[in-house]
Specification:
Length: 231
């Protein structure tokens, strides 16, 4: 595989299995949708973040290589994630299609993926889950965690029975550093910088590209919107 390979766009094979490429900002519910899609379509959910974390947990050489980068919030080199995805999509369980989550993150990754999918006969379908940033900030600002047992709450969707106190042990709930507004804004800006060129790349590729409104509705209602677009 070579990242300089220029993708070509022959007509997709009728009935070709789909590679669903999911984009969505942090706090958009992308991870939830990926899991729901996996269940409702019976296809694997391929999250590069999860795969990398598994490698770190198992202590294998690749895990050791990427650990420091991930802890620093930096991207892992393209060749490393490309190799992981290259191996994963060749597994038997991917034959009927799959959902990609967190990949591609860069244009070189997108080019490698395009070439890879063509070679293997998958039809790429991009789903961009769109949620207003003010909504995301409000959602995340409502998150609370128990400092004692780690239980998670959300003041709107899953409030504690007693305001600001953990249901299980009564400890005063806390806002995690990751959920502070400035941190969330910085993550959203980083997402935008990273993702905009990818969305343009896929929109220009002539492949199916769908934007889904993730602002309102339950996770299953949003899943239905996605499924309706997938046909
Ligand atoms: P988050 O949405 O918090 O960034 P992910 O689970 O998608 O969570 O990714 C966690 C980390 O794994 C990233 O910060 C990055 O270090 C690494 N990573 C995951 N996917 C990729 C990718 N496609 N390219 C490069 N690095 C990646």
């Amino acid at each position: 595989m070579n990242e300089n390979e220029q993708p070509v766009h022959p007509a997709p094979l009728a009935g070709a299995p789909r590679a669903i490429i999911l984009f969505g900002p942090p706090g958009s519910g992308k991870g939830t949708q990926a899991k729901l899609l996996k269940e409702s379509l019976s296809v694997p959910h391929i999250s590069t973040g999860d795969m990398l974390r598994e490698r770190i947990a198992s202590g294998d050489p690749l895990g050791l290589e990427v650990q420091a980068l991930m802890q620093a919030g930096k991207l892992v080199p393209d060749e490393t994630v490309n190799r992981l995805v290259h191996e994963r999509v060749r597994a038997k369980d991917c034959a009927g299609g799959f959902v990609l989550d967190g990949y591609p993150r860069t244009i070189p990754q997108a080019k490698v993926l395009e070439a890879e999918l063509l070679r293997l006969g998958y039809q790429p379908v991009v789903i961009h889950l769109k949620v207003d940033y003010t909504k995301i900030i409000a959602r995340i600002a409502g998150r609370r965690q128990c400092p004692v047992c780690g239980s998670l709450y959300n003041l709107t969707s899953h409030p504690p029975k007693q305001p600001e106190l953990c249901d299980l042990d009564g400890a005063r709930l806390m806002v995690r550093d990751d959920d502070r507004e400035q941190v969330v804004r910085a993550r959203l800006e980083a997402y935008e910088r990273q993702t905009q060129p990818l969305l343009e790349f896929f929109a220009a590729s002539g492949r199916p590209f769908h934007e889904v409104d993730g602002n309102d509705g339950s996770p299953t209602a949003i899943l239905e919107r996605v499924r309706a677009l997938l046909g």
